[in-house]
User: Which sequence fits this backbone?
């Protein structure tokens, strides 16, 4: 094991500091510092990030900043913004910030911003034509339903954002997403679709994604059967792909294709033509507002000193929780029904980017990396998994994501619940407080002693609250960019290439080697071979 990271003096200083502060309770830290909120809250754009309920003090932050400096974080950020090939395994830049930029960016010395703007104008023009009712299918009927066929980065981002921004949607246009190769998902969409009024967006950069192409072939056959001709395909399909030849063989001409820059990875691509279905839903002006929101966080990230840089501190506190306090997961709890799919989106962003055991140099990292990201919308989770936060045995850092909203009884109850959860999980309930509560309810003394242990909550669960005025295209763009930069910073500190995903490729390769219709291949393990044979028997084969 390569322990170079752990041998750093800055890492060892953090470990020694952990031994001194880990036993301390957040109650103590707040009692000692009445201005703790002021000291550990920062703003970026419209976002307020409250880190005061994290298990840190000023010295923790100073030591984390020392670690960032030792890992040359500033140089990493500059190299990313300069279009350097920081995706070292694939020999590419990772310059998704250029997709929402107004200033000039270059990759390998070539200016790319003008091309980004040209592509943006082109796919937004199509989105506006669809919304205006001027796009028609093969029979001349107006396109009224858009179905995105993609998976992973070609699905999760725009799907999440379409739901989040549903109140900005044009009700005349239905936008659906199909990712699962399980025919039930596509079947449920086709069951309510009118073939003559449906446009499919096939989103696959390589035009080789098995799940997406399987669904696309099913959709093409459905169209051909109902419209009477394969020639109708070109009027009912567009593609977001760089493989124009494969798209043409499928029946989509180059005029119906939108290319993606090679320097943008899938999970960072919703700002590109991958966002076409979202643009069809919310319109060009709102899509540009989404980009502007992300750009505001980019500007903050690139120009703000580390000690006041919200994504940098969010990333460093995450490393503190993972590698020094032993947290294995991160719960993301949006107190907004519209943001219900945010945890799903962040799972891919974080776990596919940094879920790695080997650094960019090819050597084992030697410490834990990406957390297991999970969560769900508040207040529903309070009646499900919050029990584990209160009285379980695991340290679980939490991100509370809270739009302030415009007030009203329901919104006030929602925001109050979020604030109450973060406070209660920080404070907990002592045995003395539990006894007092039971006595106040006039419980008999013998019952008080029996019940008290069951009411005790240790508290001391760390959390960050992200508060912003309301959920709009701009604030959603800010929120997503914040998490993108957090993941990038953590990758820099760990020495990870956050922009490849070779582990995912293994599963794809294994799937291609299993022939369900034939005798199991001799190289299969006994379990997979046995399952394959059992499947054939169940199917009557």
Assistant:
């Amino acid at each position: 094991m390569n322990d170079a990271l752990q041998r750093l003096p800055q890492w060892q200083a953090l470990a020694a500091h952990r031994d001194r502060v880990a036993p301390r309770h957040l109650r103590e830290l707040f009692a000692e510092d009445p201005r703790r909120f002021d000291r550990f809250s920062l703003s970026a754009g419209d976002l307020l990030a409250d880190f005061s309920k994290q298990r840190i003090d000023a010295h923790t932050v100073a030591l984390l900043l020392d670690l960032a400096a030792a890992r040359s974080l500033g140089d990493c950020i500059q190299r990313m913004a300069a279009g350097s090939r920081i995706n070292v395994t694939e020999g590419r830049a990772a310059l998704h910030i250029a997709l929402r930029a107004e200033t000039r960016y270059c990759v390998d010395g070539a200016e790319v911003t003008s091309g980004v703007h040209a592509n943006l104008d082109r796919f937004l023009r199509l989105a506006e034509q669809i919304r205006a009712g001027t796009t028609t299918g093969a029979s001349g009927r107006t396109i009224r339903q858009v179905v995105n066929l993609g998976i992973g980065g070609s699905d999760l981002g725009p799907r999440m954002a379409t739901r989040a921004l549903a109140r900005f949607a044009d009700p005349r246009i239905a936008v659906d997403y199909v990712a699962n190769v399980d025919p039930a998902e596509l079947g449920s969409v086709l069951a309510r679709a009118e073939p003559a009024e449906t446009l499919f967006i096939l989103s696959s950069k390589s035009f080789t994604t098995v799940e997406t192409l399987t669904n696309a072939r099913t959709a093409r056959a459905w169209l051909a059967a109902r419209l009477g001709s394969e020639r109708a395909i070109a009027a009912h399909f567009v593609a977001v792909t760089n493989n124009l030849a494969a798209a043409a063989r499928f029946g989509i001409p180059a005029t119906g294709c939108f290319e993606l820059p090679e320097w943008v990875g899938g999970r960072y691509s919703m700002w590109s033509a991958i966002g076409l279905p979202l643009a069809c839903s919310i319109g060009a002006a709102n899509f540009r507002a989404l980009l502007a929101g992300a750009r505001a966080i980019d500007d903050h990230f690139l120009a703000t000193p580390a000690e006041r840089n919200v994504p940098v501190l969010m990333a460093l506190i995450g490393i503190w929780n993972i590698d020094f306090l032993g947290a294995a997961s991160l719960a993301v709890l949006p107190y907004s029904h519209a943001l219900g799919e945010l945890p799903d989106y962040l799972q891919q962003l974080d776990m596919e980017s940094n879920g790695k055991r080997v650094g960019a140099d090819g050597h084992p990292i030697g410490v834990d990396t990406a957390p297991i990201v999970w969560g769900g919308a508040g207040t529903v989770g309070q009646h499900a998994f919050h029990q584990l936060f209160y009285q379980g045995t695991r340290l679980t850092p939490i991100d509370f994501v809270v739009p302030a909203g415009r007030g009203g009884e329901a919104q006030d109850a929602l925001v109050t619940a979020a604030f109450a959860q973060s406070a209660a999980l920080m404070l907990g309930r002592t045995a003395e407080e539990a006894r007092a509560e039971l006595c106040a309810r006039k419980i008999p003394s013998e019952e008080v002693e029996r019940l008290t242990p069951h009411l005790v909550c240790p508290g001391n669960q760390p959390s960050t609250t992200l508060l912003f005025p309301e959920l709009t295209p701009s604030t959603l763009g800010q929120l997503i960019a914040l998490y993108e930069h957090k993941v990038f910073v953590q990758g820099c500190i760990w020495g990870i290439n956050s922009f490849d995903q070779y582990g995912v490729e293994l599963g794809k390769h294994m799937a291609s080697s299993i022939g369900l219709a034939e005798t199991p291949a001799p190289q299969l393990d006994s379990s997979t071979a046995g399952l394959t044979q059992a499947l054939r028997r169940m199917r009557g084969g």
Summary: Residues 503-538 form one domain. The chain has three domains: 10-84+289-427+461-500, 112-282, 503-538.
